[in-house]
Amino acid sequence: AAKRLTGKTIVVTGASSGIGRSTALEFARTAPQNGLRLILTARRIDTLKEVAADIAKEVGDGVKVLPFKLDVSSSAEIKAFVGNLPEEWRNIDVLVNNAGLVKGVARAPEIDEDDINVMFQTNVTGLVNMTQVVLPIFLARPDGGHGDIINVGSIAGREPYAGGSIYCATKAAVRSFSESLRKELIATRVRVIEIDPGQVETEFSVIRFYGDKSKADAVYAGVEPLTPDDIAEVIVFNATRRENVVVADTLIYPNHQA
Ligand code: NDP
């Protein structure tokens, strides 16, 4: 299956930590000698450079890595993204739309408007904008279009919880978008894949509680959360299926999550 990644160019958003970082490493591990190009994007460019160094340390220089500073909440940055890539990095085959965040735990009357905006701008508008700049590359291919769009949603998009209404709404939007897009592209060979994780231990909950680590740790009390590698393995599994196979929709729980 690793051969199916030969020569591919893969973009991972939110590759500076958690699931995105693990996904970058997992692609590199799966196809270390197959001429992969990995474009790693996030706001923290220094952290992306560290991820690139981690990849080189683990698999050597068979995988080319381009750390690229990109804030997905900026439409202007996204519009300039492909044009700002060096020419040989523009032939993108796989887009992993992973960047996302949750801010705050608040009942509806107290939700902070800035938190609402940042969650929608990042999780929804950013993901849609990224898709819009990459899809034309896929659709310009002579076979009528092929490439993979892998969207990281959440269990929260399927099972909304009290205190998380806006985050849940953003992830429900991601889910709907994935499904609509899959149907719009049915005549092409573009695959649209939705991956919905349950609890995964990353920086995610630290950000949710504005940096309060003890509150973040309490989220995982009583459940052994998934690791980011668990999700990364599923993302890479999807990208390495035969072109005619679409595992369109996956929910991944830790074994004991209710
Ligand atoms: P992390 O906080 O560890 O990683 C989030 C990543 O998103 C970081 O690399 C961060 O990079 C990036 N990011 C955030 N905002 C922006 C932005 N405006 N522009 C570009 N990149 C951005 O969390 P996870 O790895 O857990 O989260 C990854 C995805 O998984 C998210 O979409 C999340 O909703 C989803 N998810 C997570 C679950 C969990 O339990 N952890 C469960 C279900 C889904 P930087 O700060 O450098 O920009």
Could you describe the 3D structure shown?
The model has no long low-confidence stretch (mean pLDDT 96). The protein has eight helices and seven strands; from the N terminus they run βαβαβαβαβαβαααβ. The two termini are 33 Å apart. It is an alpha/beta fold. The protein has one domain (2-252): NAD(P)-binding Rossmann-like Domain (Rossmann fold), CATH 3.40.50. It has a seven-stranded parallel β-sheet, sandwiched between helices. Helices cover 42% and strands 16% of the residues. The structure holds NADPH dihydro-nicotinamide-adenine-dinucleotide phosphate (NDP). NADPH dihydro-nicotinamide-adenine-dinucleotide phosphate (NDP) is lined by residues 13-20, 42-44, 47, 70-73, 98-101, 122, 152, 154, 197, 199-200, 202-204, 207, 228.
Q: What descriptive keywords fit this protein?
A:
single chain; 258 residues; alpha/beta; Rossmann fold; 7-stranded parallel beta sheet; 8 helices; 16% strand; binds NADPH dihydro-nicotinamide-adenine-dinucleotide phosphate
